[in-house]
């Protein structure tokens, strides 16, 4: 038996955790992804490096939080280590690419299959009757939810939103599109099984980012740091190496996913992440103290840090040095992130401590990228 496993990495843009049944939503219809989770380990808190799918995917494919254009990618590193590499950036090409890889010889392959976003699924593949419309939860809309929020958030919230009926229809369509993607994931797993690859292959499925879908009364802009947009699904299966049916609340990020694939493939190139194989194999689940994400745009810089149960979000409007605003949430008691503790004196110590850690991380990454 070849000592190196086949590797299948499936990535999906704008994939919310609650659109997958194994994450606890009975309205979701994702039997194949659910089965994948039952056969491996599901991570409940995998934070993307950015709310933007393109930035997050770059991090995932390099293992670097701030990857420059010269950074080696996972396909490049694994090819140097003897892997046949298969890549696809579209759902339409992914199946054929995997079929070719799975049947071509006994040497190990690594398939990097990006399926796009649920909205990219061809209309003919989407069954709008797969999920009853009334079963889909409505958007999280709370009266006065935006009062006291940072101006950077309120400016975005000023954009007109679809009517409530339109939002309900969009959410129902989204859940059905994820169901269609789940069927394609099932086909991929069947290809691995049919060619005798499934029993030794390392399979990873993750979202590059999430999707607000009207939550917090905000537009579908990848510019915020609330969990529906930044806390992504992550499921890993490796038969014989990772026990079935595991769930962990360990704090992880996409740089850790990259480190996991590098370790499993025998590559030891240093990156910004830590391999998840130890926790997946039963070692103590505390991997990292913090999860950090950032977003830099023309007008606003934003960043997030989560440590323990507390999550801090900072926004800075460019050209206004005094305009540093933020939010602080206790995710254990306020998991919808509705009640900011930013202005409460009893939490100022936590706020200042997390702000210092986040700014220190930002400065360090800027120096490394120069």
Helical content class: 25-40%
Uncertain residue segments: none
Q: What is the 3D form?
A: globular
- How large a portion of the residues is in β-strands, by DSSP E? 15-25%
- Quaternary status: single chain
Number of strands: 11
Query: How many H/I helices?
Result: 10
**Radius of gyration, Cα only, in angstroms?**
20 Å
- Mean pLDDT level: 90
Distance between the terminal alpha carbons, to the nearest Å? 44 Å
Helix/strand structural class: alpha/beta
Strand arrangement in the largest pleated sheet? 3-4-1-5-6-2-7
Q: Could you spell the SSE succession in H and E letters?
A: EHEHHEHEHHEHEEHHEEEEH
Largest sheet: 7 strands, mixed
Output the keywords.
single chain; 370 residues; alpha/beta; 7-stranded mixed β-sheet; 4-stranded antiparallel β-sheet; 10 helices; 32% helix; 20% strand
Explain the overall architecture.
With 370 residues, this protein is an alpha/beta fold. Helix content is 32%, strand content 20%. The strands form two sheets. The protein has a seven-stranded mixed sheet with strand order 3-4-1-5-6-2-7, sandwiched between helices. Strands 8-9-10-11 form a four-stranded antiparallel sheet, with helices on one face. Helix 4 links the parallel strand 3 and strand 4. Helix 2 packs parallel to helix 8 and helix 4 packs parallel to helix 6. The protein is globular. The model has no long low-confidence stretch (mean pLDDT 90).
């Amino acid at each position: 038996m070849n000592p190196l496993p086949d590797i299948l990495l499936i990535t999906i843009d704008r994939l919310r955790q609650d659109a997958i049944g194994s994450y606890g939503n009975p309205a979701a219809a994702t039997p194949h992804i659910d089965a994948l989770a039952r056969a491996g380990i599901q991570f409940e808190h995998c934070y993307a490096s950015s709310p933007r799918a393109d930035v997050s995917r770059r991090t995932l494919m390099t293992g670097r939080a701030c990857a420059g254009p010269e950074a080696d990618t996972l396909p490049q590193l694994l090819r140097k280590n003897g892997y046949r590499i298969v890549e696809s950036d579209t759902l339409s090409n992914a199946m054929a690419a995997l079929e070719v890889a799975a049947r071509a010889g006994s040497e190990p392959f690594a398939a990097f299959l990006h399926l796009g976003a649920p909205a990219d699924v061809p209309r003919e593949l989407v069954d709008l009757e797969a999920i009853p419309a009334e079963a889909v939860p409505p958007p999280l809309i709370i009266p006065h939810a935006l009062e006291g929020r940072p101006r950077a958030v309120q400016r975005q919230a000023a954009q007109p939103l679809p009517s409530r009926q339109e939002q309900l229809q969009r959410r129902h369509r989204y859940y059905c599109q994820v169901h269609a993607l789940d069927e394609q994931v099932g086909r991929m797993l069947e290809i691995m099984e049919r060619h005798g690859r499934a029993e030794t292959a390392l399979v990873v499925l993750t979202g590059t980012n999430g999707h607000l879908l009207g939550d917090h009364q905000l537009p579908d802009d990848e510019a915020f740091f609330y969990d529906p947009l930044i806390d992504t699904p992550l499921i890993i299966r490796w038969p014989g190496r990772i026990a079935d049916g595991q769930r962990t609340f360990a704090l992880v990020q996409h740089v850790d996913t990259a480190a996991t694939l590098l370790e499993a493939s025998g590559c030891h190139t240093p990156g910004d992440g830590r391999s998840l194989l130890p926790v997946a194999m039963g070692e103590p689940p505390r991997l990292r103290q913090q999860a950090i994400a950032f977003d830099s745009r023309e007008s606003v810089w934003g960043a997030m840090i989560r440590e323990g149960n507390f999550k801090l979000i900072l926004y800075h409007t460019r050209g206004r040095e005094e305009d540093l605003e933020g939010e602080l949430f206790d995710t254990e008691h306020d998991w919808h992130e509705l009640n900011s503790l930013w202005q409460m004196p009893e939490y100022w110590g936590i706020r200042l401590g997390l702000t210092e850690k986040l700014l220190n991380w930002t400065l360090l990454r800027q120096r490394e990228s120069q």
